[in-house]
Amino acid sequence: MATNEKYRIGIIGCGGMGGSHSRSWQKQENVEIVAAMDIYEESAKKLAAEYDIPATYTDVDEMLAKEDLDIVSITTWQGPRSEATVAAAKAGVKGIMGEKPMSASLGQADEMLKACEENDVKLVIGHQRRYRQQNTEIRRLIADGAIGQPTTLHHRAKAHAGLLNTGTHAIDTWRYMLSDPETLWVIGQTARTTDRWERRTICEDLCMGLVCFEGGTRAIYEGDLPDPPVAMPIVAGTEGQIREGDNGIILLQNGDAKGWQEITPQPEPKNQFQELIQWIEGEIPTHRGRGEQGRYTIEIMMAIYESLRIKDVVRMPLETKELPLELMVNDGTLPVLEEGRYDLRTPFEGQTRKR
To answer: pTM of the prediction?
Structure first.
């Protein structure tokens, strides 16, 4: 691309995250947002008015055919994200910035990656915590052996959120801090007695997962489990542990010093939007949030569900391409015992229940 040209950006999905991506793109150099698409015309026009976007659409294919886009942000719910990603890849865009979770099943994630590989499209999934300076510093400390061999990580999700909503950030952050290891196996437990959904995808009432990464590191995920909570370090190892302190400080305890060391992380010089452009232009060999990393996260979350479905440890790679939670709901393994369908994020029409 000539230096005086700008990347033409399209936004697919004009809700809250569509606005977030629009703000982020407008802060970048050599880009212009030229089109916004949403199945609800009112949402597309509202976003266009707020961010001075010249064209709006209610059909993905029409926008892709008319606008000659270089990059699209796909900020829809997880269910339709795969279809939009495949369409954009086949339309000839250079890059796609997708939101998290990558998809609603492992099969959908594979379809996204396949379409992007076949059409030479750079796919990124928006796990922006990979650009949080504290996480990058923790990654460096672990890689440098500051706590020996990492043994355990822990995350207790915020209440009433759902695995696909909050687990995706937690699990991706685990992998980032550990320098993106392979997953060996997963065991999990899930309950769903209410008719709970999250962004129109079937959602569990509660779950937990134990993930084993290469080298033996265990990571524990808790979602809506009963109180009391237990304070845990971000990561513990054979020779120390790391916690987060106040005001962005990292607390390190190991055999080299008594008590806690306070470490101030270095500022993060760029964000995921800048890095996507650098990747497209060949300035860097890859993107830290590339689609393959997003797939690892989806695979782990699906394996937590799959463990209940098969009543066993799930040894990776996961073979089931469908959403295991949906399979269990449909075959009666997880029957609804408390009637009243409800969505945690966007209520169904007439919904009265919140959680």
So the answer is: 0.96
